[in-house]
Amino acid sequence: MQRHVENFNSCNYGDAKYWDARYIKEAGAFDWYQRYSSLRPFFLKFIPFSSRILMVGCGNAVLSEDMVKDGYEDIVNTDISSVAIEMMKKKYKDIPQLKYMTMDVRDMSFFQDDSFDSVVDKGTLDSLMCGTDAPLSAAQMLGEVSRLIKAGGIYILITYGDPTVRVPYLNRHGYNWKITLYIIPRPGFVKPDGSSSSSESFLEPVPITENGKLPAGFVLEDPESHYIYVCQKMGEGDPAVHL
Ligand SMILES: C[S@@+](CC[C@H](N)C(=O)[O-])C[C@H]1O[C@@H](n2cnc3c(N)ncnc32)[C@H](O)[C@@H]1O
């Protein structure tokens, strides 16, 4: 689960050639950060089974397959790596609920505005943030995500980035996203006293302060926790959202 995550400061992570080479070398399925089993409570809460879902930067993860096994009906998976996409197309050719397309998340002009109910991103914004021109790439990507989500729809971002480094990108007036934060430990995390975490406590949202920070005195159970930002796109008639 943690394969090469420790190297996430590599500046290659925004580069298609890097990912193509990596997927040729490491062809076996791999899910970054978390598997569907840990994310399932959040998905079931925020994404109805009938949603049209866009999975950006799908890589060769099993996440979408597990979602379909659970009842999700329509997942369009995209990635900048044509190697990953061709592998996945072949692997899932008999599963009509899964579609695969090579696409740069910074330019998704192939799709019309409001094409999706939900967009799921596990580790893809993180990749762009590790590439060259990171702020520009992140703004391009999130602008496209915002454009593609219907009013009332959801962008779920699963990331290692805490609110100080992610909220400034998510909290743009143009997006009008209502942001709810959850924090979950890495899979298999064991507390210093040897006990494991109780999963129920992670289902409670963690407040984000007006400055996009965690509340004063908030202590992370796992210092290398993963953050789940649930961004709901408010409609034009809804009041503007500010943190
Ligand atoms: C950290 S991996 C995560 C893969 C998968 N989502 C998972 O959870 O296992 C990041 C993925 O983003 C893809 N990626 C990087 N830059 C991209 C871009 N500009 N457009 C689309 N995908 C991109 C990479 O090819 C890679 O598959």
Average pLDDT works out at 91
Percentage of residues assigned to helices:
25-40%
How do the strands line up in the largest sheet?
A: 3-2-1-4-5-7-6
Q: Alpha-carbon distance between the termini?
A: 33 Å
Structure explained in plain terms:
With 243 residues, the chain is of the alpha/beta class. It has helices at 16-25, 36-46, 63-70, 82-91, 124-129, 134-148, 163-170, and strands at residues 52-56, 74-79, 98-102, 116-122, 149-159, 177-184, 226-233. A seven-stranded mixed sheet has the order 3-2-1-4-5-7-6. α4 (82-91) links the parallel β2 and β3. It is globular. The relative contact order is 0.15. The model is unreliable at 1-6 (pLDDT under 50). S-adenosylmethionine binds next to α5. InterPro entries: Lys/N-term_MeTrsfase_sf, Methyltransf_11, SAM-dependent_MTases_sf. This is Methyltransferase type 11 domain-containing protein. Belongs to the methyltransferase superfamily. Pfam families: Methyltransf_11. Keywords: Methyltransferase, Transferase.
Core attributes:
single chain; 243 residues; alpha/beta; 7 strands; 28% helix; binds S-adenosylmethionine
Topology (elements, then pairings):
Blueprint: H1 16-25, H2 36-46, E1 52-56, H3 63-70, E2 74-79, H4 82-91, E3 98-102, E4 116-122, H5 124-129, H6 134-148, E5 149-159, H7 163-170, E6 177-184, E7 226-233
Parallel strand pairs: 1-2, 1-4, 2-3, 4-5
Antiparallel strand pairs: 5-7, 6-7
Bound molecules: S-adenosylmethionine (SAM).
S-adenosylmethionine binds next to helix 5.
Protein name: Methyltransferase type 11 domain-containing protein
Family: Belongs to the methyltransferase superfamily.
Keywords: Methyltransferase, Transferase
